[in-house]
């Protein structure tokens, strides 16, 4: 049995060497998504989608070269298509429906090679009493080549959210001038903080309307210093 195994291994090694010598490559890695995959136009380092109709308007600009482009483009496609499903429904409207999405990029070199974050801010008006502004963020770990989420941002076994709540509340108090602004248990709920971006000296959190404060506060962002969180960050 051992002789047969050695013989089989030798055959496999010889076959692999022969293919390499002949220049026959193995399975090619899938090409990264491009602007064309989301029916967008490449403009510089961005993908742009601009649609205009008497009943609606779409204006989207997102990065073309974000490392986790598939996740980013999936979100853009779902948001655009969901809007169009509503906007293309015949009805009586006094003004065109609107979808606008813009992006901001943040980078951190701590620790090297650091992280890259993209923040999508979306404004949507589909004729209700209030237009909506909401966020979606993506953060990429350059060293481990993987996405960073609120579930992996902090060290395993730590409880960062009471600390984070206090830091965020201090910043919110300065912005809005109120002493007890945070709704119920929202301040220690991990989902509250799921949209974030990293820089060298801060963690920026993005909150949709009604997520952390009363809806009258609208959507907003809070930047907290990294130093008090350093021992908790993964």
TrEMBL record:
Keywords: Signal. Gene3D superfamilies: Fervidobacterium nodosum Rt17-B1 like, Heat-shock cognate protein, ATPase. Residues 1-30 form the signal peptide. Residues 152-227 form the DUF3298 domain. This is Immunogenic protein MPT64.
């Amino acid at each position: 049995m051992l002789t047969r195994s050695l013989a089989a291994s030798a055959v496999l090694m010889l076959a692999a060497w022969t293919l390499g010598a002949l220049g026959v490559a193995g399975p090619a890695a899938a090409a990264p998504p491009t602007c064309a995959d989301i029916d967008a136009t490449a403009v510089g380092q961005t993908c742009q989608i601009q649609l205009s109709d008497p009943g609606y308007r779409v204006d989207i600009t997102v990065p073309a070269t974000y490392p986790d482009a598939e996740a980013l483009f999936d979100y853009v496609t779902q948001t655009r298509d969901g809007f169009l499903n509503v906007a293309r429904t015949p009805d009586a409207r006094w003004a065109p429906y609107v979808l606008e999405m813009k992006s901001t990029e943040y980078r951190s070199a701590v620790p090297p090679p650091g992280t890259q974050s993209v923040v999508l801010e979306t404004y949507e008006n589909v004729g209700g009493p209030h237009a909506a502004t909401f966020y979606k963020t993506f953060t990429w770990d350059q060293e481990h080549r993987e996405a960073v989420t609120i579930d992996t941002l902090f060290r395993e076994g730590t409880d960062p959210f009471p600390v984070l709540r206090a830091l965020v509340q201090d910043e919110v108090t300065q912005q809005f001038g109120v002493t007890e602004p945070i709704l119920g248990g929202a301040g220690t709920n991990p989902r509250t903080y799921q949209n974030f971006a990293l820089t060298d000296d801060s963690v920026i959190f993005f909150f949709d309307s009604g997520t952390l404060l009363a809806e009258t506060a609208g959507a907003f962002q809070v930047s907290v210093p990294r130093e008090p969180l350093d021992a908790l960050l993964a």
